[in-house]
Amino acid sequence: MLRSASASAALLALLAWGSLALGGCVIPQDDTLFTWPREPKNRPPRILENQVSPQTRIIREFGNGTCRQTFEVLATDPDVLDLLTVYWFVDYVPGQASTDKLDLLAPSDRPERNDRATFVADLTAANSKLRAPGLHTVEAVLADRQLDLTTRQPSQQLGENPDGGAAIVLDEGYAVTYAWTVETVTGVCQ
């Protein structure tokens, strides 16, 4: 009985020593090599809401003493090398492939862009969509890729697989929006 206990202890000691000596995992490991540094995937831009102008989202009695209104947005994007585009829409009709104005915001060395995107609504202009009395929507759509104007969806780009594999995945674009409601009234601007 004593002999079997010492044999068991010796076997346990041998197993413990063997696991320490071999020290590795008995399951084969994947030898995939990564190339570093990988390009980060596209990150979404933002419209800084505390920097938009006008600050109120509802403009009442436009045309009663006020004939011009300037709308401005300031953009930020952690991808500092992205060219940002602001598409301005007045009374957007889904499926219609047109924009009222386009502003390009050049890349900068910091996330916040140097320029503001600006749209001026002028009721004295003959082609102003805001001339008709009633409610209107002025909207700024900020995109870091080209925007499909009929769907208002940004395009996607092919990119590297984030796990380093050979498969190619889509690096999606982003679009964000900010809108104002404008109540146009018949006034002195007609």
Describe the structure.
The chain has one helix and 13 strands; from the N terminus they run H-E-E-E-E-E-E-E-E-E-E-E-E-E. The protein is mainly β. The strands form five sheets. A five-stranded mixed beta sheet has the order 2-13-8-5-6, with no helix packed on it. It has a two-stranded antiparallel sheet with strand order 1-4. A hairpin with a 7-residue loop joins strand 11 (156-160) and strand 12 (168-172). The protein is rod-shaped.
Keywords:
190 residues; mainly beta; five-stranded mixed beta sheet; two-stranded antiparallel sheet; 13 strands; 11% helix; 35% strand; rod-shaped
Cα-based radius of gyration, to the nearest Å: 30 Å
The helix-strand sequence is HEEEEEEEEEEEEE
Beta strand %: 35-45%
- Give the mean pLDDT: 84
Shape: rod-shaped
Largest sheet: 5 strands, mixed
Determine the number of helices (DSSP H or I, runs of at least 4 residues).
1
**Share of helix among residues?**
10-25%
Oligomer: single chain
Q: Kindly, what is the distance between the CA atoms of the first and last residues, rounded to a whole number of angstroms?
A: 112 Å
Sheet with the most strands: spatial strand order: 2-13-8-5-6
Query: What ranges have pLDDT less than 50 throughout 5 or more consecutive residues?
Result: none
Structural class: mainly beta
Number of strands: 13
